[in-house]
Design goal:
With 163 residues, this protein is of the alpha+beta class. The chain contains 4 helices and 5 strands. α1 runs antiparallel to α3.
Length: 163
């Protein structure tokens, strides 16, 4: 059975952003992105204007996919945490609830230990939100309802619109 289509409402999005903003402050990070495993940016907080967020999101998902391949080669399910250290900036990348990727960019104003500690707590909170979204999607699918806003639009409707 295919994974049900999850729909995020404004309240869900505000909850996610609240957690990301809190993590940004508590980890003394520069920017935080939440990305789905397909490479789509879900949210970003902090100094996001400095980055090509589309590229960052897709490259992060690719990085996770590549290291997932490496993990399988050595008999691991996946590497749930990745760390990249640069001259000025560092990236902490983690998988949240097996569903999304949390990217934390930080510099010397913070430390890897602090980031890991704060990410662990935030990941639990984010995991609960995504678990709730998944349950809601499953319940809608079982009941035959669709939470997907475009579910009732057919190919014929699209053709009629553009003809």
């Amino acid at each position: 059975m295919a994974t049900p289509q999850m729909v995020m409402y404004d309240d869900d999005f505000k909850q996610l952003n609240y957690i990301l903003e809190k993590l940004l402050r508590e980890a003394n990070a520069k920017v935080i992105f939440l990305v789905d495993k397909n490479g789509q940016l879900i949210s970003g907080v902090g100094e996001t204007e400095r980055f090509d967020t589309t590229s960052l999101a897709s490259l992060t998902a690719g990085n996770i996919a590549a290291t997932g391949g490496l993990a399988k080669l050595i008999g691991e399910k996946e590497f749930s945490i990745l760390f990249h250290e640069g001259e000025k900036d560092n990236l902490h990348i983690s998988i949240v609830g097996g569903r999304v990727i949390l990217v934390v960019l930080f510099d010397s104003r913070s430390s890897l230990g602090l980031v890991r500690l704060r990410v662990k707590k935030a990941s639990e909170e984010l995991g609960h939100i995504f678990e709730s979204l998944a349950k809601r999607a499953e319940e809608k699918e079982k009941s035959g309802e669709s939470d997907f806003p475009f579910a009732e639009i057919t190919d014929d409707d699209i053709d009629n619109l553009f003809s």
